[in-house]
């Protein structure tokens, strides 16, 4: 890695002692000796193991649940169903007033995705819990499911989630988060070329080497200590407090040493049910996702569909951009309404375009609920935007890198969401890329600056 | 469940335990003996985080039955440093900033140690091959490859 | 049939933090009796190095070496609230809170030193090595060790501070979408060079040249860790990763690392990283959040390079050999 100090030198004082120094990491000695303590490196006497009974169907009504055989299985201590969870219907962003509560801790009457948790089994060993889980009998009436976002948005589509009553998240702005800037139709009308293209992704797994999990130890004083690899301590504690209807002061969360997250450990999934198990049995409880659960049960990065329509001039200026983004939330909201909204704030990318129209939808389908991942709400949008930029440049016969210089935002430029640009540095990144990759661009582009025009 | 006795040498110390028949070496090490340096990343033999050295060979402890290790000599990452002095591989991982979350690190170091024990002057291709059973999600592997090559060089310098 | 080369470029920006939800983080700093400093937080270190960076920020602000600072984090009984580690917010939000707390602690430390040295606190400075000196008269000095002892046992002062950093929530305007999604943005431009085998559809990424603008590299080696790993993940997303390979069909999802593919140590692109620093106006020592955005530009850069190589557009991720072959077949039949 090289630090190119020549850029922005006038905005920076390089006179610090500790900042800017490549100090060794304080945690690395623990890592290389195997002494770093991750949550699962604790072992409590009498610890129980929790395994979930999961839905084999994408969408089904639960006619009945029979746990009697599982309860008789040697080593089983407790079997939990929806009725055991004090506040079973929840949604994690309720803490920032993004509702409605739309998800069950344990399925109650219905399952909405293949893999949804229906029954929790607590046993002396992992093996006993697994074997007993296989003995739980759930009688399902399979319902029609919808997997395709376009299908889900059509009238008459099966309703994925009754708590929403429609297959999209309803924002205060309506069926989508909107950004309106200038007059996009006039922009298209005046453009030399108009190009509309559709981009698509599928769900992506965070794949941290340490799977999601927690260990809960009941303390003698009616409190519960939860050793967890959550990415957000109080967010998880406060949601647990709501789900278990347990005062927050009864909960003690310890974490902060995590084997990779990438956004995959911000859902509040393992902690509430494990703490409930510890409360009802009085025993320590361990609930750790298997690798298979991490890959197919834990929230992935959402699949997205992005439709971009651009109006471009022969001289390289983009004069209008309309983006319609669809985020596949799966069966429940989790963080997806936020992600779709974040996308609306990100489009039309780091370019100054006078006419912009953005609609971003959060769509429900019968698949594993998606949630945050590194680049949340942006990564797939950037793929779409930057492939579109390449297509536009080739459409007008212009070098793709030069085309980006023409449209790059600079300090003071008004963004579509009506914030003036500050601290821009796209131009300088492209200039340095031009040099590093030996991809020459016209001198006028190498002389450009992100600083405000005329400044 | 039937208990069976197991006895092996772990990092130079004799260990004897009664375990449930069918217990993996990974669980025996972590839950019975208390050596948590091998990590359970997949319990399927696909991530390498649980790697240990058994009688000089790299093994996945999540796929190895503890009772099959009777009489074996087992090395884990927690046993590498002697008298507080880091093993050259551990030193090289530190110096190369080759750890981020650290969860794959003990397994990586085990794989690298077996390589260097067998091939003291490995090529980059040798290192890549040796690490190819170990998943890392943070580093992009390059710093780890560099750390192993550096450790090999410092080993051969010490030997010279 | 041939191996064809192509290259592609992509340029991106990325917001730091989650302004659209409201974004608070707190920190506490206090000294021990012998002049070491504790930073108490509830922020989570996912492996990116949060603990180390908070120690460096605290050390810089107080004016001591980093190894005099210990970070105690992610215990809800002791650490004050942090929203969490996501949205590239950790260093920016928690860093600002630590600076505020450390400044308050530093002020008390200087006041105690001033009493010991019988000068004004405003006339004192730290040497970064653990001593407090009188400006212009460095022979008149006192160690922070002695200042802390004095504060604890003689002067009855608590060398401590509280820090709070809050980005208030921005509510998007319903009709126009006017909002403030972030206060600062990181930037990147990536050029990727690929080889595509038009017989098998396989893509080899030969080189990626990444230029990242990240505000300030607080610890350059740790920045490099994130950027190298992120660049790898971007390539991985571009070519390999999916839990539903035939989305929206739910079948064929991987359940282990043999089925869920990522590039291994033998599949690495030659990776170049160049870092520019345009300090953010409100970041701790100018830092922005580089952790997420560093994995984004490789995806479109690789996609554009594939087109440059074989003349087909794969607009669906991941860009698998199957998709390339199908597109080449469609192209040939047109």
Describe the SSE topology.
The complex is a heterotrimer of chains A (455), B (160) and C (334).
Chain A: E1 2-3, H1 28-33, E2 48-54, E3 60-66, H2 68-72, E4 76-80, E5 89-90, E6 103-104, E7 110-111, E8 117-123, H3 126-133, E9 137-142, H4 149-152, E10 177-181, H5 184-190, E11 193-200, E12 213-218, E13 224-228, H6 233-244, E14 251-254, H7 270-281, E15 285-288, H8 291-296, E16 304-312, E17 318-330, H9 336-346, E18 356-364, H10 379-395, H11 400-407, H12 426-436, H13 443-446
Parallel strand pairs in A: 2-15, 13-14, 17-18
Antiparallel strand pairs in A: 2-8, 3-7, 3-9, 4-8, 5-6, 10-18, 11-16, 12-13, 12-15, 16-17
Chain B: E1 3-10, E2 13-20, H1 25-33, E3 51-54, E4 57-60, E5 73-75, H2 88-95, H3 105-118, H4 124-131, H5 142-159
Parallel strand pairs in B: 1-5
Antiparallel strand pairs in B: 1-2, 3-4, 3-5
Helix pairs in contact in B: 2-5, 3-4
Chain C: E1 3-15, E2 23-31, E3 37-40, H1 50-62, E4 69-72, H2 90-117, E5 124-126, E6 131-134, E7 137-143, H3 144-155, E8 160-167, E9 185-197, E10 203-213, H4 220-239, E11 270-276, H5 298-310, H6 321-333
Parallel strand pairs in C: 3-4, 10-11
Antiparallel strand pairs in C: 1-9, 2-3, 2-8, 5-6, 6-7, 9-10
Helix pairs in contact in C: 1-2, 2-3, 4-5
Characterization of this structure:
Chain A is an alpha+beta fold. Chain A folds into 2 domains: 48-142 and 207-296, Aldehyde oxidase/xanthine dehydrogenase, a/b hammerhead (Aldehyde Oxidoreductase, domain 3, Alpha-Beta Complex); 177-204 and 300-446, Aldehyde oxidase/xanthine dehydrogenase, molybdopterin binding domain (Aldehyde Oxidoreductase, domain 4). Chain A has 13 helices and 18 strands. A 7-stranded mixed β-sheet of chain A has the order 4-8-2-15-12-13-14. In chain A, strands 10-18-17-16-11 form a 5-stranded mixed β-sheet, sandwiched between helices. In chain A, strand 13, helix 6 (233-244) and strand 14 form a beta-alpha-beta unit. With 160 residues, chain B is α+β, with helices and mostly antiparallel strands. Chain B folds into 2 domains: 3-79, Ubiquitin-like (UB roll) (Roll); 88-159, DNA polymerase, domain 1. A 5-stranded mixed β-sheet of chain B has the order 2-1-5-3-4, with helices on both faces. In chain B, strand 3 and strand 4 form a beta hairpin. In chain B, helix 3 (105-118) packs across helix 4 (124-131). Chain B is globular, with a radius of gyration of 16 Å. Chain C is an alpha+beta fold and 334 residues long. In chain C, 30% of the residues lie in helices and 25% in strands. In chain C, strands 1-9-10-11 form a 4-stranded mixed β-sheet. In chain C, helix 1 (50-62) links the parallel strand 3 (37-40) and strand 4 (69-72). Chain C starts with a strand and ends with a helix. The relative contact order of chain C is 0.19.
